[in-house]
Amino acid sequence: MSLEERASPTNAADFHAEVDDVFERIASRYDLLCDLFSFGIHWSWKRRVATLIASEPWTDLHDAATGTGDVILRVARQGRLQAHQKIVASDMSSRMLALARKRATSIGAPVEFKMLDAHAMPSVPGESVDLYSMSLGLKICERQQVLREAERIYYDPAAIRAELARLEEQLEAGEITEEEFDRQEDELLDRLETAMRTSATGDGTAPR
Ligand SMILES: C[S@@+](CC[C@H](N)C(=O)[O-])C[C@H]1O[C@@H](n2cnc3c(N)ncnc32)[C@H](O)[C@@H]1O
């Protein structure tokens, strides 16, 4: 796709970093601008989003288009993080990320920051996160592409466990043979293991 075509918006807001990376330019004023444009209301709903995220039973959280880290640092600040939980926050603006990293360091929040374009994150293994969040980012991205990429990296352990339970019911009801049960169970356990392994190492290699 040419730059001109990219510049004609198929998203809600006309934002194309290749043409003009607004967020690189306004990074240091971003938080103030949010206050001004939302009359401060953004704090209240970011707090609600963070509380919701913190209450979910995730292991690997990826917050894309994290900006200055408002939402993700609130999650970390809730103080309910457990040792096995890992947070990665990404953004395509180095300046926004630098501010987020500085804030995380100042409060000792265990967040790993990465510079990534949410449309395509090839360095993030498939099925490696069980919670994906994006706040105020979808409207300035190509939604379908970003959602497809989110789906690629997402796995749902509860869904895999539910499939396993369904499979056992089918076996007990005589709807499938022992061999079919073993074959499908192996597949599901492989998927669960792969998801756990890639999320444990972050790069798809076996944990040491
Ligand atoms: C409106 S801010 C939202 C920041 C933060 N999530 C919040 O709620 O305050 C949008 C952020 O998305 C980032 N961004 C825009 N397009 C992106 C893309 N394709 N991939 C990753 N980040 C992107 C910008 O650099 C900016 O930091």
Task: Walk me through the structure.
The chain has 208 residues and is α/β, with parallel strands linked by helices. The chain has 2 domains: 3-153, Vaccinia Virus protein VP39 (Rossmann fold, 3-Layer(aba) Sandwich), CATH 3.40.50; 157-201, no CATH class. It is 51% helix and 10% strand. The chain is built from 9 helices and 4 strands, in the order ααααβαβαββααα. A 4-stranded parallel β-sheet has the order 3-2-1-4, covered by helices on one side. α5 (70-77) links the parallel β1 (60-64) and β2. α4 crosses α5 and α8 runs antiparallel to α9 (178-201). The longest helix is centred in the last third of the chain and has 24 residues, at 178-201. The chain is elongated, with a radius of gyration of 20 Å. The relative contact order is 0.12. Residues 1-9 and 202-208 have low confidence and may be disordered. S-adenosylmethionine is lined by residues 23, 64-67, 70-71, 91-93, 96, 117-119, 135-137, 140-141.
